[in-house]
Amino acid sequence: MKIKNKLLATAIVTGVAVTGGLGLSKVNSAYAMSNGPGNFASDLAQRFNLNQNDVESFLEEKHQEREQQMEQNRTEQLQNLVDSGKLTADQKNALEAKFDEMRTERESLKNQNLTREEMHTKHQELRDSFKSWADSQGIDLSLIRPLGPGGHRHGPGGDDNNH
């Protein structure tokens, strides 16, 4: 029974980690927003009789893998835009530096004990600031929107809305 629970928990967490519709960090963040930080790993560990530290390590490992893959995809996307003449090399370098800066800012928000509404406001301020910055750099943000699995754009106006 214990092995079956561990296998089921691993399958659930792995499935959540690799699905294109909801990234692991979004599931964990949404859960934390509604149930308090750290409860996702704790509740999962309790539900399937697992070691909480093992669950937390596994979740962090999957999060890091996803972050690395997203970074690699973005780098390739930006290089393709440079190769096709839609961005200059300087714009690409500026974007990469700006993405690093924004990641640092987002990480610092996590440690500020903000309410859900405050966090939403801060994220909107970051997006607005990024849009203004991109305009000042002559960068068309529609070129660099995040791409989903298979290179399809998701969300309003995305390619997958026609499927």
Task: Report what the structure shows.
The protein is an all-alpha fold and 163 residues long. The chain folds into two domains: 1-70, no CATH class; 87-148. The protein contains six helices and no strands. Helix 3 (39-47) crosses helix 4 (52-83). The chain is flat and about 55 Å long.
Give short descriptive properties of this protein:
163 residues; mainly alpha; 2 domains; 6 helices; 0% strand; disordered C terminus
Which structural class matches the secondary elements? mainly alpha
- Please tally the β strands and state the result: 0
Count of alpha and pi helical runs: 6
Secondary structure: helix percent: 55-70%
Rg calc? 19 Å
Task: Give the overall shape, derived from the CA principal axes.
Answer: flat
Largest sheet: none
Q: What is the CA-CA span between the terminal residues?
A: 42 Å
Write the SSE topology.
Elements: H1 2-18, H2 24-35, H3 39-47, H4 52-83, H5 89-110, H6 116-137
Helix pairs in contact: 1-4, 3-4, 5-6
Summarize the structure.
Helix content is 70%, strand content 0%.
